[in-house]
Amino acid sequence: MIFVRDKGRLCNNILQYGHVYAWGREHHRQTMSMRFAYKYPWFHIRETRYHHFLVYVFVKYAAKLGFIPVVNFDEEGKDYSQEEQRMSNSRMLVVSGWYARWYDLFLKYKSEILQLFAFNENVEQKIAGILGAKKALRLGVHVRRGDYASFMDGRFLYSDEQYVHVIQMFLSLHGERNIEVYVCGNDPHLDKDYYREQLPRCRVMFPHGHPAEDLCLLSHCDYLIGAPSTFSLVAAMYRDLPLYWIENPDAELTSGSFRYFDDLFRHIH
Fold it and tell me: Which pLDDT tens digit goes with each residue over 78-109?
């Protein structure tokens, strides 16, 4: 059994476990996510074997006391062939670190990973109630603030004005089409009135869900825009949505600016 000691936030955890799950499937090894054993109750994975709190506690303290070995994937670009050999040979093992990555295997088992992280029915029902019947093109916008004030020295910390500017460029690509804009994010001080004033031709919504609800809602949009982040990336993964990561808020937005998960997940900042 390979136990995955996740780090970071929700979507980092989904991607990290997805990589190790795919490696395990390829090598006929069972895997378990320690983070999803006690946190994030909104996904199908919580209903699968081993994903409950008692297993998490056992593995956490067994690893801490040295009864279960730990292999770390903490260095970008390192040759991890020895760590993989230990993964193959050990009866029980904890895998830790952000650089446990097997991109081709992830894509091979992507449909299974999506099934594991399917949203619970109550989440889907709530989002269906917010979206209603489809009458317009849906644009999902993920506004990332908070920790992005320090992430990469604030490189991707954008203002409401900058997000609105990018949305306005998106609108210009779609002529007179009826467009709904759903703005999700982690900033409680978002200037909602500014968005509504600057985007008068759109229905602009601010759902205010918990993380899984926001993720689910974004996954049901037609296009996604956001600062480079695993949150918008995972939202795009569910239905292979076109995603525009704002690397430069002043750059021209074209139809060719949008990319897809299978490419972007190899280029996470």
Answer: 999 999 999 999 999 999 999 999 999 999 99
Output the pLDDT for position 154.
Answer: 64
Structure tokens, 53: 């709190």
The per-residue pLDDT for range 139-176, each reduced to its tens digit, is 999 998 777 767 766 678 889 999 999 999 999 999 88
Contact 95, 87 (CB under 8 A): yes
Instruction: Report how far residue 206's alpha carbon sits from residue 183's, in angstroms, rounded to the nearest whole number.
Output: 5
Stated pTM of the model: 0.94
Q: How far is Cα of residue 55 from the mean position of the Cα atoms in its chain?
A: 25
Residue type, 113: I
Cα distance between residue 33 and residue 77, in whole Å: 24
236-261: string of b/e by CB count within 10 Å (b at 16+)? bbbeebbbbbbeebeeebeeebbeeb
Tokens representing 231 are: 């949150």
DSSP 81-149: HHHHHHHHH-SSEEEESTT---HHHHHHTHHHHHHHTPBPHHHHHHHHHHH-S--SEEEEEEE--GGGG
pLDDT of residue 157: 85
Helices (H), 177-255: 192-198, 211-219, 230-239
Q: How many CA atoms lie within 13 A of 192 on its CB side?
A: 13
Question: Residue 32 and residue 60: Cα distance in Å, rounded?
Answer: 12
Report CA Rg, the chain: 20
* pLDDT of amino acid 226: 95
